[in-house]
Amino acid sequence: MKIEGLTQRQADELLVKHGANILKEPETYGPIKILLDQLKSPLIFVLFIAVALSFSLGEYIDTVFIMIVILINTSLGFFQEYKAQNILKTLKKKVSKKIKVIRDGQTQIIDYTLLVPGDTILLHAGLKVPGDAIIIEESELLVDESILTGESHPVEKSVGDTQLRQEEIKGIHKVFMGSTVVEGYGYAKVYATSDKTQFGKIAESLEDKFDPPTPIRLELQRLSKLVILIVIFITGFVGILGILRNMPLDDVILTSVSLAGGDYSRISPYSPYSYSCPRHE
Question: Which residues cross the membrane (predicted)?
């Protein structure tokens, strides 16, 4: 099958219309801001209060224990968000810098940034696909799409019908930016570049300031508020109970802090808070 591809004039006009095949850089934050964001949780705030009170009472073991809990929680959140910010850098490495296209009926080598919708690209083993395209010719073509789908095995591809609308063509007939040709060869007609690709939408999602509350996030927020209210209620109740029973103020504060920090070992089985033990006279 003779493939003519675009003319150079058409390619130049489409480049002006669609822009360069470059992914937009998302807004990123420094490590300090990411770290501080992890400390905005209401539960972390409660734990910091417990740390301060434990330290002021000389209960250094309790202080260290609660600080470890805070450190673990903060570290997990920090590394997850920091890793997410660097996804785009990883994705950009998954695109070949120089690619082969058919223009004016001839094979040309161009920079991937000059690729435009309508271009016909050559698919070959080792190619990191530079745009989303529909396969128009292939021979034993296998493509690794793990970066997009997580699929561990290469996907066998076949020729698609370019007369159909792009939305009607199945993924098995397409190759996507960021995927890698593992085996075989073929030709594909590009229909999306830069931010319009599936690859680009991932990068764009990193910059999206709108963060809709998912059901699981709403449930976690509700649970977090509920836990805080329960902690405040129990801590206040225990404190009032201790005062009514004429406990030393230090013991009242220590027991309340232990409850807030989750260290129930500080409450003696012979404590006046226990209804199952003999009362102190």
Answer: 41-58, 64-82, 226-244
